[in-house]
Amino acid sequence: MEILNSIHPDVIQEIENVLKRGQILILPTDTVYGLVCDARNRNAVNKIFAIKRRDLNKPIGIFVRDIRMAEEFAELDEEKRETLARFWPGKVTFILKKKRGLADNVGTEETIGMRMPAYKLIHDLFSRIDFPLAQSSANISNEPTKTRIQEIIDEFEDESQKPDLIINAGDLRSAPPSTVMDLTKEKPEILRQGEVQIRLN
User: Fold this and answer.
1) Which residues are bridge partners to 179 per DSSP?
2) What is the pLDDT of residue 198?
3) DSSP labels, 131-191
4) Within a domain: residue 148?
5) What is the value of pTM for the model shown?
6) Order of strands across the sheet with 165-168?
7) Tens of pLDDT, residues 35-46
8) Domains identified in the chain, total number
């Protein structure tokens, strides 16, 4: 388990290499530290579930670069595009009807949760890769999410299944999770109110 400082000059290159090798990394986001991998790689996604000891029936979502990438993997009409554009980049996850192209263990059989984070490191990474990132919070399932980097390192250090690379950006500000909005039904539905408060008419 390698640890690399987020301001290291080669950090983006190393992250790209890890992802393209089908490996797993922990990196900071605009909410908490997340476990991420290439969302098209079934074996890599399975490793995230193993590292977290997560129930395979509990789906994980993806990070996307922009609305164009979102449309590659989810069904969008003009109204949905406008909704995404209103809140992205930012702390809102949208549940959408899933298209082909993702690993079958990302999302559910029919739906996918996706978000475009407002975080420079992830933005810089997406300038170099053309695939979405499967993502889940960097913690063992049913344990609290953590924002302190040393607690995250300690949690995984002695595990038999562990991430290949941890990006150390220091401690993150404690913040509520992303808001989750379901756009798969006739009327949008808020499944979780997070830091971004959304009121539907």
Assistant:
1) 92
2) 87
3) S-EEEEESS-TTSPP---HHHHHHHHHT-SS--SEEEE--PPPP----EEEE-SSSS-EEE
4) yes
5) 0.94
6) 2-5, 165-168, 25-27, 34-38, 133-137, 61-63, 111-115, 92-97, 179-182, 189-192
7) 999 999 999 999
8) 1
